[in-house]
């Protein structure tokens, strides 16, 4: 689906409105709006999401924003991986890295023997607005 600049601005405005009512920053809302656009079967890197959210150099902030999502959020957080094409290991040692990989595999995203996704094949390439 091709989205117009006006449509994307509306998505960001809605995401910001919902986020601000939940006490989240407009920065997080911009990140969530970008991540919500990643289609099934595609992935984006933290840095890519940061650049698309007009936050270049803020890949780590993308990780913090995704970690702040409430359980059951419709934002497809699992489609964001690191620049090496891998699921990032969680600091708490919990099962979410395995859950993330399983969710991606369910969407037919393939991992190699090193646990990496072929970014040249599965990276999301949004059309310019």
Describe the fold and architecture.
The structure is a single chain. The chain has 129 residues and is mainly α. It has a single domain (5-122), classed as Arc Repressor Mutant, subunit A (Orthogonal Bundle), CATH 1.10.10.10. The protein has helices spanning 5-21, 26-35, 46-52, 59-67, 96-106, 119-122, and strands spanning 44-45, 80-81. The model is unreliable at 1-21 (pLDDT under 50).
In DSSP terms (H or I, runs of 4 or more residues), the helix count works out at: 6
Low-confidence stretches: 1-21
Could you estimate the helical fraction of the residues in percent? Answer: 40-55%
Q: Tell me the β content.
A: under 5%
**CATH C-level class:** Mainly Alpha
Lateral arrangement of strands in the main beta sheet: 1-2
Radius of gyration: 14 Å
Element order: H for helix, E for strand:
HHEHHEHH
Q: How many strand segments? A: 2
Largest sheet: 2 strands, parallel
- The name of the CATH topology is Arc Repressor Mutant, subunit A
Summarize this entry quickly.
About 45% of the residues lie in helices and about 5% in strands.
Characteristic key phrases:
Arc Repressor Mutant, subunit A; two-stranded parallel sheet; 2 strands; globular; disordered N terminus
Secondary structure blueprint with pairings:
Layout lengths: L4 H17 L4 H10 L8 E2 H7 L6 H9 L12 E2 L14 H11 L12 H4 L7
């Amino acid at each position: 689906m091709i989205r117009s600049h006006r449509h994307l601005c509306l998505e960001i405005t809605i995401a910001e409105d919902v986020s601000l009512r939940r006490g989240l920053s407009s920065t997080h809302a911009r990140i969530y709006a970008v991540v919500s656009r990643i289609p099934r079967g595609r992935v984006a890197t933290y840095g890519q999401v940061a650049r698309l959210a007009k936050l270049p150099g803020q890949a780590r902030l993308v990780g913090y924003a995704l970690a702040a999502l409430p359980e059951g959020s419709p934002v497809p957080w699992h489609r964001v991986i690191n620049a090496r094409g891998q699921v990032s290991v969680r600091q708490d040692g919990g099962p979410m890295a395995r859950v993330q990989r399983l969710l991606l595999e369910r969407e037919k995203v393939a991992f190699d023997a090193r646990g990496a996704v072929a970014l040249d094949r599965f990276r999301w390439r949004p059309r310019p607005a």
